[in-house]
Design brief:
The chain has ten helices and ten strands. The chain is of the alpha/beta class.
């Protein structure tokens, strides 16, 4: 498309209604509804462009600013169900590390990541405390923040130290990220493009996507809903919460492979050869 065509096409995207106040989105400084509205509009615009370029009719895109922030916080707007029933959140009930921030001896705060059960075992063993939230809080408060961060790193346990943007930019991680492009793209190989059919019903119809991540909704929300065929590949003995599959993998097929086995690695390479993404 030419730049003039881009301008003409962007006119088909409209935003309506007033965004809710920041407090309604549980944000103190960022208007989350506007942030997500831009991303939603961009995804919809790309899908509509692809659809038109593959022979489909033009589409007008409308973004409701009252609802754009839904799903960013699981407590706001996230009410999916299966056959009218609530989705169970088993295996997370009683986990003291979820949605909690812990204060350290020197008055700073850390976020301890233990979404999965095995990490709950490892963290409580590392801290030498019980799984009760009060026990975790009392033990963390015996640590200075930098000492805890360093020890957790050596133990291979995920932890984030809460700090200002300026302080974070002085760390090795912060320096690396700040010097990197927002979305780095590197060509891995040169291969011929696979032709996609025209006269389709949905923008990504016929596109095959191989997904080896999990708990990421992009392959589902970003591609399946637009007609792509998604195959989710999980480790044979890997674990994911059932509610995460339900939230993030709607419309996806799934399989399990053990990449320690030669035959399963061969299967994966064959899947890669047949995939578009």
């Amino acid at each position: 498309m030419t730049s003039s065509q881009d301008v003409a096409y962007s006119a088909l995207t409209t935003f309506h209604q007033k965004p809710p106040p920041k407090a309604a989105t549980k944000s103190q400084h960022i208007k989350l509804t506007l942030v997500v509205a831009i991303l939603s509009a961009a995804n919809a615009l790309v899908a509509a462009r692809i659809f038109e370029q593959r022979g489909g009719e033009p589409h007008a895109i409308t973004i409701d600013l009252r609802k754009s922030h839904n799903y960013i916080d699981p407590d706001i707007g996230m009410t999916p169900s299966i056959n009218g029933q609530e989705i169970p959140h088993d295996v997370v009930v009683g986990n003291p590390f979820l949605r909690n921030i812990f204060q350290t001896k020197d008055g700073r705060h850390v976020v301890i990541s233990a979404v999965y059960v095995d990490l709950v075992y490892k963290w409580t063993a590392f801290l030498g405390c019980s799984v009760l939230e009060s026990s975790v809080r009392g033990t963390v408060k015996n640590w200075n923040s930098n000492d805890l961060e360093e020890a957790a790193d050596k133990a291979g346990l995920p932890l984030a130290l809460v700090q200002s943007e300026d302080a974070w930019l002085t760390t090795a991680h912060g320096k690396h990220i700040s010097d990197s492009t927002i979305v780095p793209i590197k060509r891995a190989t040169n291969s011929s493009c696979k032709e996609l059919s025209h006269n389709l019903r949905r923008p990504l119809e016929g596109v095959k996507v191989l997904c080896c991540t999990h708990a990421i909704a992009g392959p589902s929300a970003g591609r399946t809903e637009h007609g792509a065929s998604i195959l989710q590949v999980m480790f044979t003995h890997g674990f994911e919460h059932s509610f995460v599959y339900t939230y993030a993998n709607l419309g996806c097929a799934s399989t399990r492979l053990n990449l320690h086995k030669a035959e399963d690695r061969e299967r994966l390479w064959n899947l890669i050869k047949d995939a578009n993404v």
